[in-house]
Amino acid sequence: MEATNLLSTLELLCAPKKLDRERGEDQLNNISLTSDEVKLVSSWIEEKLEGLSNWEDVFGGITAAIILLRNVDYGSLVDIGIVGKLEDQVVQCHDNPEFRVRIAAGQLMGSLCRHAGLSLFNRYLPTVIQGVITNLERNTEAPVSEAELSLRELNIAKEHSTNLSSSSLSIFHDTAGWKNLETWMKCLQEMVSNLPSKDFIKVDKTNILELTFKAVQHVNRFVRETGYDVLSTMISRHLCYTEPEAKEPTYINVATQLVKGLSDNWSQVRMAASRAVRTLFEVDPPSGFTRDDIYPILLPAMCLNRYYVAEGVRIYSQDTWCRVTQGEGRRLLGQYLVPAVDYYIQQSDADNHAVREASCASMAEIVTKLDSKLLLPCVGKLLDALIVCFGDESWPVRDAACVALGSLISTFPNETRASGHDDLMASQFLRNLNDSIPSVRDGAAKSIAAILKSVDDQNLFQHYINHIVEKIDGLSKQPKESHGAESSRVSGKGPGASHVTVHSGDAAHDSRHTDQVMYSCGSLAPKLQKGRKGGGCHDGLHQRTSEPWEEADGAIRLIGQISNMFPNRVTDDLIEQLLKGCEYRNYTHYPYFLETGKHNL
């Protein structure tokens, strides 16, 4: 290849546009370099790294060095002297203000460690550890980035808006960048992943593990996420024991740290921890330990995340559960039921409403899928936790708690009455049956029908029939201008379903949901304080009074569920009530009421 063409390819590595840089990488990767061309590229790399001024030049030089190490014989690179210069200069690149340069520098250090082995790893390790330690704490007097300034402006705006419920300090620490900490952690990950396994076993992991544990507990969620990625890499390199046959207590410590990540308020952190958990189960446990030692620690959180609102976490967790349990999930959950129940109850009190919803779904699962004899000692604890969630200010949580309670009470009606709920919580279920959210009303109707089927209580049955008559008669009081969520648009059930209320007409311009700050699902606003109004696409904390048509809608949903459970009890009077409700057509939302009536008829 002509020198001019080779230089043109190299200059593409320093192009301002990412597409051009990637094109340069592809071209250089596909070139079979002669010894003279290797020397030319080496000289070009030295020139680019010596300047340390323009970030694109430095980035291009590092990229070319990584490609050389990948495609050219390492011994020949040592002979021409480029390796020694790279080993010395690459550390300086971590002072570059451009994060892409620092990330590339970490990749280059990993490539060098792959070839040079333990000696170079031990040479770099103190510098990397010091880089992490130095950046673990923020210098509040240092200049801040534009993103951080925006967050501070948001905090100032909070003082003038009742809709912003989060503390400025919490938002600032949990979202703002933390200098070079993340890139130093990525560098450590590259070094660990590239060091040959036979060499990594000889490394003293005490400082690395201590540093990683600090990172996964850091106040900033980006640092926690990177920390779990590093931990996952270290687990894959047999972090949990020094020698293949040695016994190390770090196996339990690692599992304890992982469960904190599986319970994190940020979905990205949960995902990183989930990847690390899968890796932990893919690696054989150290001698003297079995998976039974970490099952009670990790299984409850793994099980709960199968219902988490973030789709990526939910699907990944479901797949991990299948891989780990191999069809024995029900047996394992029954075996470790007590820690699972305790974890679900703990998570039902989490600040993040999406976590509370997932915990209710998990409690419903163990009630419906496990032997009732196993659950009997836990009924009281489950009942108390679900009753609290039944009154949650977030409607998806109320909905999930209602479904779970319906399953629990229908399975243990006597135990529920023994706990002081003689009417089997009829008043609470009727409150949900009257809710302004269609899916909440539907869940309440199904739960009530399941409870009625489990007990032979004519008084309780008549109590619900009286409610149906009362609410359908109440349609005569429905104003012409009605409000509410259309059932066809809010039809999702369970975690991950869309819980968005569609507003129309004057309601679409209501100040409560106009020009307000919005947040990421399951992250900032929902996690900060349980039950407070904070915005976000799942905000169900503003609970308006239900209208007569919505209460009647719940009543005919109950008629439909009763007809499924008790076909012989569907009398002409009930059908008359349903048809009577469909006669009222003087309000805006009557088509949606008719839709429910038609479905249940």
TrEMBL record:
Keywords: Repeat. InterPro entries: ARM-like, ARM-type_fold, HEAT. It comes from Schistosoma rodhaini. Residues 475-511 are annotated as: Disordered. This is TOG domain-containing protein. Residues 475-486 have a biased composition (Basic and acidic residues).
